Fold this sequence. Notes:
With 167 residues, chain A is α+β, with helices and mostly antiparallel strands.
Amino acid sequence: MVMDRKNAVTRRTFFRTAGVLGATVAAGGLLGFPLSQTQAEDAAAPAAVDMDGLIAKQMGPGAIAMEKVTLDIPATAENAALVRMPIVVDHPMEANNFIQSVALFIDNNPSPLVAQFELTPEAGKVSLEFRSRMAKTSKVRVVAKSNTGKLYGLVKEIQVAAGGCAG
Amino acid sequence: MAEEIGSPKIRGPKDPVKKGELVEIKSLIKHPMESGLRKDKATDALIPAHFIESVVVEYGGKQVLKAAWSGAVSKDPFFSFFVKAEATGPLKMTWKDNKGQTFEASTTITVA
């Protein structure tokens, strides 16, 4: 195998690798096609970030209930440098039952953790808004944690219009 | 090319509000919010990170909300949120950037 020039997977080395893998799998009596297709997708995707791990680190462990959180914005961002992020969490803000922390993540940004908020019952309700830059089309995730450690979340795919500048 | 920085602004309710009312606070500050990942087009060198990393909101002297931001928050950041009006008092916001510079602004919430 000639892989000396650089570590980056070039088109040529990719097809060579895929070919070898395909041949290996075919020799084993399986179809090579699904494997090489998966590889092609991996090669096209950006460096994978362990979003589950990052969210667990920021918000604590546990299952995330996909409810109570809304992010009411269009599925396509017109200006990637200025994407409105209006976060609403439909949850009481009472002394012993409130949302303590809210974080917003953009998977395909160079640094996915965009902002994190710590709240108290004195906020009255969770309705926060700010603007974010998006490097490219990405999943946007919002995770909210209650004072008892319950997690609520939302995932929304936001398209970034072609030619958008992340600034 | 000195970029304008600071001039923090807060807008709360102009008129007195009822006790227990949830009031929206809107804020704006001038800041480049450089992520540290952007290149200067002329020199191809990375522009050093310079962004607001924390925003603290105090109402009646008590911290009610705190934000931790990254360089992915947009330039000249807008930020709005709610507080529960309990008593007449100041609502103060403090922005702090990664170079240690701080900015403050306040408004008064009047409970009728």
